[in-house]
Amino acid sequence: MYPDQNYPDQPQPLRQPIGRPWSWRDDADLTLEHDRGRTVDDIARLLNRSPAAVRCRWRALAFDLDSFRGGPPRRAYAPWSGNADWRLLVESQNATVYELAEEFGRSPSAIRSRLRHIRKMRNNNVNIDTRSR
């Protein structure tokens, strides 16, 4: 008798895993294709996976799913100006991060990061109106 044989009295798993496990290369390809601005559907086709599997893996890698919805934001990686910092700080009092992201053409995570940065500068008495970039 072999230990891996199935016997009627042995408990069987309820479900078998669906699909194949994600490798480090799959993760690297997912990140690379996202950075190139591809959509979830495009990445799913390239990796031979379902869009739901790609979203789930993206979540597991702790990336921001909002950046996946329509490609990279309009002003991604563009420098922030002092005027934009000031507007962001003022408008953050009455708007959600997602509304601000839409208005400024940035991702929600970029908005949160910039607000933290601005507040830190204000705590260190740095004038955001006169600083140069």
What attributes does this structure have?
133 residues, mainly alpha, 2 domains, 6 helices
Describe the structure in your own words:
The longest helix is centred in the last third of the chain and has 16 residues, at 108-123. It is elongated and about 55 Å long. Helix content is 48%, strand content 0%. It has 2 domains: 24-68; 73-133, no CATH class. With 133 residues, the chain is an all-alpha fold. The mean pLDDT is 76.
Q: Give a count of the beta strands, DSSP E runs of length 2 or more.
A: 0
Count of discrete domains:
2
Summarize the biggest pleated sheet: none
Structural class: mainly alpha
Mean pLDDT over the residues: 76
What are the secondary-structure elements, in order, as H or E? HHHHHH
User: Helicity level, as a percent range?
Assistant: 40-55%
Quaternary structure type: single chain
Strand composition percent: under 5%
Distance between the termini: 74 Å
Shape designation: elongated
The radius of gyration computed from the alpha-carbon positions, rounded to a whole number of angstroms, is 22 Å
Helical stretch tally: 6
What are the low-pLDDT stretches, counting only 5+ consecutive residues below 50? none
